[in-house]
Write a structure and sequence with these properties.
Length: about 375
């Protein structure tokens, strides 16, 4: 009952809408929210297309599908994009699960690609190709791991900010690549060009007649391996415990610095391996553009996939489709790259927004309930 001395302005007014965090949501409902978000994104894209052009949105979407899956060659190009992005995301997953914010994947990719290119330039044709490729892969993973161990050591020892540290390491790697490109460039063109184009020394051979099949196979093996590592190994359990609470991990007898260093070595090593695959199987060159921004895109993949390698596979498939499709509609309908990127951005925005509604729900003020309470 309301006290007669209470004044209306003394009472706290309940907001019309407020957010409530979902404690638990069924997986089926979560995926339904994601699917509806994608459909909503496609609807908004259709409105955008009709507002700036007289094109039929269905024909634009058909062009996107053709760009990603229209021919066998396009399918393998899409699979290649998906596999490379997935490998990098797989590398980031354990570090992010640990709450070690590794935003240095770009630098780890570059440094892995740089050491691979160095071996191709200096040992190409001098040792058997199988041995050269093996040396390149192991060196790229090792150097990538070392690149990640530097911020991991300072984080575990001195509690430095790993986000800033790994980000700055990107710029160091970028400058190292620029320096080496100028060092190896004999024509003063600021490019090393295609490395060993005549001998193909250090090039990963095609598998089943497909140039990118080895990348897809490696991505599949890494995905399965990381899923087992995160879900069913002692190390994966330790990553989960440390990520939830370092104090709890110490109480359980887990060495937090050891887990940080070990996990970051794995994370950066896989990113370095991605740099090797880019140089040895895709571009066959090294430049400041070798990473191509995939290190940052992979962060989105890891977050949306909840650090689950199987879920990240689906996210990378969607992003690879959008990327290839955007390029195709730019070609077919004379869109500039900005217009096609806007379409990709709209759909990606709705995908990201779906995670908000998975984690939170909107609650509206119930006037009847309030009056009854009064």
């Amino acid at each position: 009952m309301r006290n007669k001395y209470d004044k209306p302005h003394d009472r706290v007014k309940e907001p019309l809408i407020h957010l409530v965090r979902r404690v638990d949501i069924p997986a089926s409902k979560a995926w339904m929210i994601r699917i509806l978000s994608v459909l909503a994104g496609l609807l908004v894209c259709a409105l955008f297309i009709m507002s700036i052009t007289s094109l039929n949105p269905i024909s634009v979407y058909a062009s996107m599908f053709s760009g990603a899956f229209g021919t066998v060659r396009r399918i393998w190009q899409t699979l290649k994009d998906m596999a490379l992005l997935l490998i990098i995301a797989i590398g980031l997953a354990p570090a992010f699960k640990l709450r070690f914010w590794n935003v240095g994947a770009e630098g780890q990719i570059l440094i892995g690609g740089l050491v691979s290119a160095a071996w191709m330039i200096n040992l190409g044709g001098k040792i058997p190709n199988v041995l050269l490729i093996l040396l390149m892969a192991l060196s790229a993973a090792a150097v990538g791991a070392i690149w990640g161990l530097i911020p991991a050591y300072f984080k575990s020892r001195y509690k430095t900010n790993e986000t800033l540290f790994t980000l700055m390491m990107n710029y160091v790697a970028l400058q190292l690549v620029e320096f080496c490109v100028d060092l190896w460039d004999k024509k003063q063109s600021h490019s090393v060009g295609i490395i060993n184009g005549n001998t193909k020394a250090g090039w990963i051979p095609a598998l089943f007649g497909q140039q990118f099949a080895p990348i897809v196979l490696i991505a599949a093996l890494l995905t399965a391996g990381m899923y087992f590592y995160m879900k069913h190994s002692k190390h994966g359990f330790e990553i989960s415990v440390v990520g939830e609470s370092e104090n709890t991990a110490r109480y359980a007898g887990i060495s937090v610095p050891k887990v940080i260093i070990r996990t970051m070595a794995i994370s950066a090593g896989i990113c370095g391996l991605a740099g090797f695959l880019e140089v040895a199987s895709v571009s066959h060159t090294i430049s400041s553009l070798t990473a191509g921004g995939r290190g940052f895109t992979a962060i989105i993949v890891a977050w949306l996939g909840k650090f689950n390698p199987l879920a990240m596979t689906l996210i990378t498939a969607i992003l690879a489709f959008l990327s290839r499709g955007a390029n195709q509609i730019a070609s077919d309908f004379n869109f500039n790259t900005y217009a096609s990127d806007i379409l990709t951005g709209i759909i990606l925005f709705f995908i990201l927004a779906s995670e908000f509604f998975i984690n939170y729900r909107l609650v509206f003020r119930n006037r009847k309930g309030k009056e009854a309470a009064d």
